[in-house]
Protein backbone atom coordinates (compact mmCIF):
# COMPACT_ATOMS: atom_id res chain seq x y z
CA UNK A 1 0.00 0.00 0.00
CA UNK A 2 1.27 3.47 -0.87
CA UNK A 3 -0.09 6.47 1.04
CA UNK A 4 0.00 9.98 -0.41
CA UNK A 5 -0.07 12.16 2.71
CA UNK A 6 -1.38 15.24 0.87
CA UNK A 7 -4.26 13.36 -0.78
CA UNK A 8 -5.08 11.50 2.43
CA UNK A 9 -5.38 14.78 4.32
CA UNK A 10 -7.66 16.36 1.72
CA UNK A 11 -9.89 13.29 1.38
CA UNK A 12 -10.18 12.84 5.14
CA UNK A 13 -11.29 16.43 5.75
CA UNK A 14 -13.17 16.88 2.48
CA UNK A 15 -11.57 20.18 1.50
CA UNK A 16 -8.47 21.23 -0.40
CA UNK A 17 -5.39 22.14 1.64
CA UNK A 18 -4.93 25.28 -0.46
CA UNK A 19 -8.46 26.54 0.17
CA UNK A 20 -7.95 30.21 1.08
CA UNK A 21 -10.55 30.06 3.86
CA UNK A 22 -8.90 27.03 5.43
CA UNK A 23 -5.31 28.28 5.51
CA UNK A 24 -5.71 30.68 8.50
CA UNK A 25 -7.78 28.07 10.38
CA UNK A 26 -5.54 25.12 9.59
CA UNK A 27 -3.38 25.07 12.71
CA UNK A 28 -6.12 26.19 15.10
CA UNK A 29 -8.32 23.25 14.12
CA UNK A 30 -5.45 20.81 13.40
CA UNK A 31 -6.33 20.55 9.73
CA UNK A 32 -3.06 18.86 8.89
CA UNK A 33 -1.60 15.42 8.39
CA UNK A 34 -0.25 15.19 11.93
CA UNK A 35 -3.72 15.00 13.48
CA UNK A 36 -5.44 12.31 15.50
CA UNK A 37 -7.79 11.41 12.63
CA UNK A 38 -4.96 10.88 10.13
CA UNK A 39 -2.83 9.04 12.67
CA UNK A 40 -5.65 6.61 13.43
CA UNK A 41 -6.16 5.95 9.72
CA UNK A 42 -2.48 5.34 9.04
CA UNK A 43 -2.02 3.23 12.17
CA UNK A 44 -5.00 1.04 11.26
CA UNK A 45 -3.72 0.51 7.73
CA UNK A 46 -0.23 -0.47 8.90
CA UNK A 47 -1.61 -2.88 11.49
CA UNK A 48 -4.09 -4.48 9.09
CA UNK A 49 -1.58 -4.71 6.23
CA UNK A 50 1.10 -6.30 8.41
CA UNK A 51 -1.37 -8.87 9.70
CA UNK A 52 -1.74 -9.94 6.05
CA UNK A 53 1.97 -9.77 5.24
CA UNK A 54 1.61 -6.63 3.15
CA UNK A 55 3.87 -3.59 3.23
CA UNK A 56 2.95 0.08 3.63
CA UNK A 57 4.84 3.12 2.36
CA UNK A 58 4.16 6.85 2.44
CA UNK A 59 5.19 9.88 0.41
CA UNK A 60 4.26 13.57 0.44
CA UNK A 61 5.08 16.68 2.42
CA UNK A 62 4.15 15.42 5.88
CA UNK A 63 7.03 13.02 6.58
CA UNK A 64 9.47 15.51 5.04
CA UNK A 65 8.27 18.63 6.87
CA UNK A 66 7.07 17.36 10.24
CA UNK A 67 9.59 15.51 12.47
CA UNK A 68 6.86 14.58 14.94
CA UNK A 69 4.81 12.85 12.23
CA UNK A 70 7.95 11.12 10.98
CA UNK A 71 8.56 9.76 14.48
CA UNK A 72 4.99 8.50 14.60
CA UNK A 73 5.48 6.60 11.33
CA UNK A 74 8.67 4.95 12.57
CA UNK A 75 7.02 3.97 15.86
CA UNK A 76 4.11 2.42 14.00
CA UNK A 77 6.51 0.32 11.92
CA UNK A 78 5.86 1.72 8.44
CA UNK A 79 7.94 -0.09 5.83
CA UNK A 80 9.12 2.80 3.65
CA UNK A 81 9.12 6.59 3.70
CA UNK A 82 9.70 8.79 0.66
CA UNK A 83 11.17 12.20 1.43
CA UNK A 84 11.32 15.39 -0.62
CA UNK A 85 14.77 16.03 -2.08
CA UNK A 86 15.32 19.29 -0.18
CA UNK A 87 14.60 17.62 3.18
CA UNK A 88 16.11 14.21 2.46
CA UNK A 89 19.20 14.60 4.66
CA UNK A 90 17.20 15.96 7.60
CA UNK A 91 14.59 13.24 7.17
CA UNK A 92 17.25 10.52 7.18
CA UNK A 93 18.71 11.94 10.39
CA UNK A 94 15.28 12.12 12.06
CA UNK A 95 14.52 8.53 11.03
CA UNK A 96 17.86 7.32 12.39
CA UNK A 97 17.27 9.17 15.66
CA UNK A 98 13.76 7.84 16.09
CA UNK A 99 14.68 4.21 15.45
CA UNK A 100 17.35 4.36 18.18
CA UNK A 101 15.22 6.30 20.67
CA UNK A 102 12.18 4.05 20.29
CA UNK A 103 14.30 0.90 20.57
CA UNK A 104 16.70 1.81 23.36
CA UNK A 105 14.86 4.10 25.78
CA UNK A 106 12.01 4.01 28.27
CA UNK A 107 8.99 6.21 27.61
CA UNK A 108 10.10 8.83 30.15
CA UNK A 109 13.59 9.03 28.67
CA UNK A 110 12.18 9.21 25.14
CA UNK A 111 10.26 12.36 26.05
CA UNK A 112 13.36 14.04 27.47
CA UNK A 113 15.39 12.99 24.43
CA UNK A 114 12.92 14.35 21.88
CA UNK A 115 12.68 17.65 23.77
CA UNK A 116 16.47 17.92 23.87
CA UNK A 117 16.85 17.19 20.15
CA UNK A 118 14.10 19.68 19.31
CA UNK A 119 16.04 22.28 21.27
CA UNK A 120 19.20 21.44 19.29
CA UNK A 121 17.33 21.71 15.99
CA UNK A 122 15.76 25.05 16.92
CA UNK A 123 19.12 26.54 17.88
CA UNK A 124 20.60 25.39 14.58
CA UNK A 125 17.70 26.96 12.68
CA UNK A 126 18.05 30.16 14.71
CA UNK A 127 21.64 30.71 13.56
CA UNK A 128 21.35 29.17 10.08
CA UNK A 129 20.26 32.37 8.27
CA UNK A 130 22.57 34.86 10.03
CA UNK A 131 25.44 32.40 9.57
CA UNK A 132 24.67 32.21 5.85
CA UNK A 133 24.57 36.00 5.55
CA UNK A 134 27.90 36.35 7.33
CA UNK A 135 29.52 33.75 5.10
CA UNK A 136 28.22 35.57 2.00
CA UNK A 137 29.66 38.85 3.25
CA UNK A 138 33.05 37.21 3.80
CA UNK A 139 33.00 35.72 0.30
CA UNK A 140 32.14 39.08 -1.28
CA UNK A 141 34.91 40.93 0.55
CA UNK A 142 37.50 38.23 -0.23
CA UNK A 143 41.01 39.41 0.66
CA UNK A 144 39.68 42.72 1.98
CA UNK A 145 37.49 41.06 4.60
CA UNK A 146 37.41 42.83 7.95
CA UNK A 147 39.13 40.84 10.74
CA UNK A 148 36.16 41.49 13.03
CA UNK A 149 33.72 40.10 10.45
CA UNK A 150 35.92 37.07 9.83
CA UNK A 151 36.21 36.37 13.56
CA UNK A 152 32.48 36.43 14.25
CA UNK A 153 31.77 34.38 11.10
CA UNK A 154 34.18 31.72 12.32
CA UNK A 155 32.40 31.79 15.68
CA UNK A 156 29.02 31.18 14.04
CA UNK A 157 30.52 28.34 11.99
CA UNK A 158 32.01 26.76 15.10
CA UNK A 159 28.75 26.95 17.06
CA UNK A 160 26.78 25.54 14.13
CA UNK A 161 29.16 22.57 13.93
CA UNK A 162 29.27 22.08 17.70
CA UNK A 163 25.48 21.94 18.11
CA UNK A 164 25.20 19.55 15.15
CA UNK A 165 27.82 17.34 16.78
CA UNK A 166 26.07 17.50 20.14
CA UNK A 167 22.78 16.20 18.71
CA UNK A 168 24.55 13.50 16.66
CA UNK A 169 26.90 12.29 19.41
CA UNK A 170 24.10 12.32 21.98
CA UNK A 171 22.06 9.83 19.96
CA UNK A 172 25.17 7.84 19.03
CA UNK A 173 26.11 7.45 22.70
CA UNK A 174 22.55 6.41 23.58
CA UNK A 175 22.78 3.69 20.97
CA UNK A 176 26.04 2.34 22.37
CA UNK A 177 25.20 2.26 26.08
CA UNK A 178 22.61 0.74 28.38
CA UNK A 179 19.43 2.59 29.30
CA UNK A 180 20.65 2.87 32.89
CA UNK A 181 23.31 5.35 31.78
CA UNK A 182 20.78 7.69 30.17
CA UNK A 183 20.82 10.43 32.80
CA UNK A 184 24.61 10.66 32.77
CA UNK A 185 24.69 11.00 28.97
CA UNK A 186 21.77 13.43 28.94
CA UNK A 187 23.32 15.72 31.56
CA UNK A 188 26.65 15.73 29.73
CA UNK A 189 25.20 16.98 26.45
CA UNK A 190 22.55 19.17 28.05
CA UNK A 191 25.26 21.11 29.90
CA UNK A 192 27.16 21.60 26.64
CA UNK A 193 24.05 22.91 24.91
CA UNK A 194 23.22 25.31 27.74
CA UNK A 195 26.49 27.14 27.08
CA UNK A 196 25.44 27.84 23.49
CA UNK A 197 21.91 28.84 24.52
CA UNK A 198 23.47 31.61 26.59
CA UNK A 199 26.04 32.60 23.96
CA UNK A 200 23.87 32.80 20.82
CA UNK A 201 21.70 35.81 21.89
CA UNK A 202 24.89 37.78 22.64
CA UNK A 203 26.33 36.95 19.22
CA UNK A 204 23.15 37.88 17.35
CA UNK A 205 23.35 41.35 18.92
CA UNK A 206 26.96 41.75 17.84
CA UNK A 207 26.24 41.11 14.16
CA UNK A 208 23.80 44.03 13.97
CA UNK A 209 26.74 46.31 13.23
CA UNK A 210 27.08 44.43 9.94
CA UNK A 211 23.43 45.07 9.08
CA UNK A 212 22.23 41.57 10.00
CA UNK A 213 19.13 41.41 12.17
UniProtKB/TrEMBL annotation:
<protein>
    <recommendedName>
        <fullName>PEP-utilising enzyme C-terminal domain-containing protein</fullName>
    </recommendedName>
</protein>
<keyword id="KW-0067">ATP-binding</keyword>
<dbReference type="Pfam" id="PF02896">
    <property type="entry name" value="PEP-utilizers_C"/>
</dbReference>
<feature type="domain" description="PEP-utilising enzyme C-terminal">
    <location>
        <begin position="1"/>
        <end position="93"/>
    </location>
</feature>
<dbReference type="GO" id="GO:0008986">
    <property type="term" value="F:pyruvate, water dikinase activity"/>
</dbReference>
<dbReference type="InterPro" id="IPR000121">
    <property type="entry name" value="PEP_util_C"/>
</dbReference>
<comment type="similarity">
    <text>Belongs to the PEP-utilizing enzyme family.</text>
</comment>
<keyword id="KW-0547">Nucleotide-binding</keyword>
<dbReference type="InterPro" id="IPR015813">
    <property type="entry name" value="Pyrv/PenolPyrv_kinase-like_dom"/>
</dbReference>
<dbReference type="InterPro" id="IPR006319">
    <property type="entry name" value="PEP_synth"/>
</dbReference>
<dbReference type="GO" id="GO:0005524">
    <property type="term" value="F:ATP binding"/>
</dbReference>
<dbReference type="InterPro" id="IPR040442">
    <property type="entry name" value="Pyrv_kinase-like_dom_sf"/>
</dbReference>
Amino acid sequence: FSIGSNDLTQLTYGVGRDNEKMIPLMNNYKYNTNSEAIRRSVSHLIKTAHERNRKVGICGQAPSDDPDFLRFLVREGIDSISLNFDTFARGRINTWRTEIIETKLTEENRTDTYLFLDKCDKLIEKIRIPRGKLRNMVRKQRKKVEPKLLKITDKFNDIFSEISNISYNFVKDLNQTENLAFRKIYDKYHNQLTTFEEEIPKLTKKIREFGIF
